[in-house]
Amino acid sequence: MRIVLPEALRELAGERAVVEVAGGRDEVGGVLGALRAAHPGLYDRLMTEQGALRPHVNIFVDGENIRFTGGLETGVEAASEILVLPAISGG
User: pTM score, two decimals?
Assistant: First the structure.
């Protein structure tokens, strides 16, 4: 499974734009759990201490925002691409 990271988060994944996570996970939450084992600092930037997705982080599975498709329980397949996008704000 491929997790695509924005430039702002790449330092937490060894400067990689794409992180591969072993298959066998069928939900976004499981994929992020596998990511935690490999890159705990990255996981902490995405998830709260209670295990919820941080409000400023958007995750897309195959182009669909998981906030509208089941959240962390959104299904994924071995060929799915997960895109992580932190929200951008300014004034």
Answer: 0.88
* CA dist., res. 64 & res. 51, Å (int): 21
Give Rg (Cα) of the chain: 12
CATH number of the domain located at residue range(s) 2-86 in this protein: 3.10.20.30
Helix extents (H) in 1-91: 7-10, 28-38, 40-46
List, in order, residues 6 or more apart from 30 with CB less than 8 Å away: none
- As given in the structure block, the two tokens for residue 45 are 């930037």
Q: What is residue 54's DSSP assignment?
A: P
For residue range 15-68, what is the model confidence (pLDDT) as tens digits?
999 999 876 679 999 999 888 888 999 999 999 999 999 999 999 999 999 999
